[in-house]
Write a structure and sequence with these properties.
The protein has about 300 residues and is α/β, with parallel strands linked by helices. It is about 45% helix and about 25% strand. The chain folds into two domains: about 1-45 and about 170-295, Rossmann fold (3-Layer(aba) Sandwich); about 50-165, Calcium-transporting ATPase, cytoplasmic domain N. The chain has twelve helices and 13 strands. The chain is elongated and about 70 Å long. The protein binds adenosine-5'-diphosphate and magnesium ion.
């Protein structure tokens, strides 16, 4: 009966939009007691829009957006796409950047129109010896207080402004969290984004503040999963980004969003084809039931 039951399970899975790498991955769903959720693109839509611009004294907002947008045009990050789109809408053609570098979890650097430009977390600027002046730091704090993701823009060795983008929680995410809890799983939110934006999303979907890990660098995501495992938990992880791949592989059960990047899909045990977080609960319920049929 074993092979037939597994085939039925995986066939039903395909109908629900769940792709399973192999029947052996179902085994870990029995013991899973914790589910780590990436924020951007997993709990939220990952489609960000530019909401506010704050420019340093003497800096033209249009120029701020043009230089930042030109650089971000070379990046695939959701923050980058929002800034590049807004810049193209506002200023038309963007100059092509030269010498572009992405620093995972921090931002981007490169040359635009003869300027040395950086866009990213305050930490990216600080690592290059650039400090945010008090007025921009206050603007960043205020934007984050409202749940936004604020990134700093610098060129030629000075901070020039703060651009704030924001994302929305997917319509099914709160229900997904409720259903995962009903299966006995403890949800944890994991993100490279700022603590206030992460806290706002956690509150909206019903994740406890103590279960939020924010400002985590890409290599830190796998460490969060490993620490939970070291504390005796059996961990499922749901993610969509390049930054999530190592954590998906480390988890006892890795669930990749089908809307995510190939690296995440390759690292996961299961793929949620439509990128609907509610299907994570279906996958675990179905898998447990399939295993119960076999035993
Ligand atoms: P998440 O875990 O939410 O997917 P990441 O680890 O990819 O986030 O990024 C963390 C933070 O690093 C972002 O919230 C942003 O502040 C900054 N960042 C990353 N990439 C970029 C970029 N291309 N442009 C500007 N900021 C970026
Ligand atoms: Mg993500």
């Amino acid at each position: 009966a074993t092979p037939t039951a597994l085939l039925v399970g995986t066939g039903r899975g395909a109908q629900l939009g769940i792709l399973i790498k192999g029947p052996e991955v179902l085994e870990s769903t029995q013991a899973v007691d914790t589910i780590v959720l990436d924020k951007t693109g997993t709990v939220t839509t990952g489609v960000m829009t530019l909401v506010t611009m704050d420019a340093a004294d003497g800096v033209d907002k249009k120029e701020l957006l043009r230089l930042a947008g030109a650089l971000e045009h070379a990046s695939e990050h959701p923050v980058a796409r929002a800034i590049a789109r807004a810049a193209a809408d506002a200023t038309g053609d963007l100059p092509a950047p030269a010498g572009f570098t992405a620093v995972p979890g921090l931002g981007v650097r490169g040359q635009v129109a003869g300027h040395d430009v950086m866009v990213g977390r305050e930490r990216l600027l600080r690592d290059a010896g650039v400090e945010l002046p008090a007025d921009l730091a206050a603007a960043k704090d205020a934007a984050e207080e409202r749940g936004g993701t604020a990134v700093a823009v610098a060129w030629d060795g000075a901070a020039r402004g703060v651009l704030t983008v924001s994302d929305t929680v997917k319509p099914g995410s709160a229900e997904a969290v409720r259903r995962l809890r009903a299966l006995g799983l403890r949800p944890v939110l994991l993100t490279g984004d700022n603590a206030r934006a992460a806290g706002a999303v956690a509150a909206e979907v019903g994740i406890a503040a103590e279960d939020v890990h924010a400002e985590v660098l890409p290599e830190g995501k796998v460490a969060v999963v490993r620490d939970l495992q070291a504390a005796g938990r059996t961990v499922a992880m749901v993610g969509d980004g390049v930054n999530d791949a190592a954590a998906l592989a480390q988890a006892d059960l890795g669930l990749a969003m089908g809307t995510g990047v190939d690296a995440a899909i390759e690292a996961g045990d299961l793929t949620l084809v439509r990128g609907d977080l509610r299907v994570a609960a279906d996958a675990i319920r179905l898998s447990r039931r399939t295993l119960a049929t076999i035993k």
